[in-house]
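Interim report, section 4.2 (structural modelling).
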Amino acid sequence: MYEKREMTFRVFRFNAQSDYLPAYKRYDLTVSKEEVMLDVLNRIKWEQDPTLSYRRSCRHGICGSCGIKVNGRAIVACKENVWQLAELYGEEMVIEPQDTRLAYKDLIIDKSRFWESYRAVTPWLEGPVEEKPQKEHLIEPNYAEQIDEADHCIQCGSCFYSCPAAAVNEAYLGPAALALAYRFSTDVRDKSHANRLRAVNEPGSGIWDCVKCVECSETCPKGVEPLSKIFALHNQTFEAGVHKRNVATRHAVVFKRSIEKHGPLDEAENVRYSEGSLGALRHMREAFAMLRRGKLPLPGRVHKSHNHSEVKTLIQSASKNKF
Amino acid sequence: MGTPVHKFDVVIVGAGLAGCAAAKTAQEAGLKTVVLTKLHPLRSHSGAAQGGINAALSESDTASHEFDTVKGSDYLGDQDAIELMTREAPQTIRWLEHMGAVFSRNDDGTIAQRPFGGQSHPRACYAKDRTGLTCLQTIYEQAHRAGVQFLDEWYVGDLLYDKSSDQAYGVVAYSLKETEFAIFNAKAVMFATGGYARAFGINSNAHANTGDGLSILARHGLPLEDMEFVQFHPTGLAGSGILISEAARGEGGHLYNSENERFMEKYAPSKMELAPRDVVSRAIEKEILEGRGVGPNKDSVWLDLTHLPEEIIETRLPELRDLAITFLGRDMAKERILIRATAHYSMGGIPTDIDGRVRSGAERKVSGLYAAGECACVSIHGANRLGANSLLEAIFFGRRAGEAIVQDIGQLELREAIGTESDRLSGEVSALLRNNGPDTVHAIRTDLQQSMTRNAGVFRTRASLLEQKAYLATLRDRFSQMRVGDKSKLYNTDLQEALELGHMLDFSAFIVEGALAREESRGAHYREDFPERNDERFLQHTFGTMDPSGKIALEYTPVTLGRHTPQARTY
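Predicted structure of the assembly:
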């Protein structure tokens, strides 16, 4: 304990009122083994440079204020031990806001789009509230547990500002809001289950615009695993029968069919079924390129995996929904 | 151009449990309500509460919840308020549950409850070890649903108050984003600004808990009650002071000193580790003072959970396990962790009646001013708060304050504010930005916090308190010349910290004066030179008021007693 280490931090500095371009300012610090990244920010501000601005409050990973990026990775500063980060990145680190494009003052960004997404998923339990209830709802532990940590989200934005889909698609609600949608759609007390699912089922903004890169679940500091909630919402839309026939749902259907039928994927058929025969024509260039390299079996020539019957049994036992 | 004046029916400062509960109630009654917070509502410190929220869900337990609270308060709690809150606690919890709170459940689907310190029955309802988070999310969600307007990142720095008519009619604030001033003019003003334990060196509180609301009122000559009572929670992580919830002991954690004794045997043989917080904190600090501490500086004791099945830790205390790993590098499922007492909760605060109406004296109330939650002193907690009563108090009295506002609003008239009424706050800000002395915010704050822990902490004496009183005067002098290094208008957090420090210096003087005059030991206030409780002289609430020079005058008002007459408090 109380060991020390010399480290260097290059911190993103920007003032939207006076600066045309951001700059990275260097601060050298001796860091002890117990310190977290928020200690580093505090010590820079308190000991070296009072002009540094960042958000912070609780100091122990529950209020979600101090989301930043270190070497491009989203963290909650008060939850990340500096020495452990040094194992990954060495003794020189770059500290940036969650999204440099949204920087307002140093590490403080304009989070309005993040909160708009929050507000867009009807973030409250729907139904009448009894003002002086004599009894609680009875919810057995196994039902209660289906919320599966989705209620643990602290709205730090780590997932949202790591999500490549949200970065390029302004309309996309993003992982935090979708996990919140799941938190309510899975709550047996909620009276708006189908409406919630319809809302997140919209192409462009909803669950089908996730690109399944797993970045959100990797970066979440609270174990919410937003991706697993987005997958669960996919299933819920089918279960509730609110899914629409569109390219995303057809893709899900044909994906399953292909595996059931062959084992491997029938890529050509996947595209044809998802996008329709005409739509598939748009992909002819890629198709020929793949064919040339042997990456695309011809339609009808997909080989069957040798333990195909096992695959089939697995699919059947895992299928909860009828397509 | 004058400062813009925004008009509302109700303006609420602070968006934690109390503020949101009141806002929801007022808005649903059709009142135009705005909530100002220097954070985002979901960042409020209510969300950090870990262990539980009390309610006697079985009817046979109600009387003992009431008694445990009275006894826990060392008989300084007002029994009318305690009786009311404990009686209505079950429906309050179930109201939260109906609004969506995700409580942990028993196998039959009812809300699960766990044991907590100082309690005769397991009655702390919980959501794993993040009970505050689910409560805060739920009440914010429902206030938002009701249409309450929330303004994030607005710093409230002054109250609009007319002394001659004893009436409050708004607040002055500025946006942290751009340092733009505004006046929020309203018929009813409510403070729900949280606690003040940040004045101490080792504390469990968020950076935001600087008690601004208290000194904002005190600077207008309004009283603060029982400020000397600050709870030191027994189990803060060594070094950071970050809280390890009482749930750790509730689930069976043991405390050991350097000689491997379960030392609570000496201090509270029947309750052991589950004695109330003041008792356990003093025991820990005594062990350390007498040389039986552990850790590299011998300034901690062990909290041991390794005898519990790993599954219990994983399912009921996952957040705590994570905290000890982050801040100590120790896994509590496998090894003991280092803890010591940490300043945690403010029993004192803005005096209110049981409906959240703020008192301007023992018998008088301010027209149009309300307070609830940790910043208020009803008083439920008296000299020491029982674990898992704080969330309950915040939500219960927050809601009641909202109901009182709805009830009173017909009689309250909007006293028109004018643009120049922001001058006090803008003047305070310009002075801070202009001063160019040698000290930084950080230097003075650190000296304040360390000296408060040393001289006005777990153990106090006349000498230590006199020393602290004199020291506060020198800190105040240094503060008057202090330099704020950031002159920018955008998110000038250095300026914000400077304003907050000014408030901390002001209310700290109330803590010290109250403690100096209270020549007895009661609950969390322990005087080594007066180790006994003295009901004859001090079964009374302290009311302190500050004059413009910063001098504090004290008077005492009687405690509301009830069916529980004071007895010796042993565990």
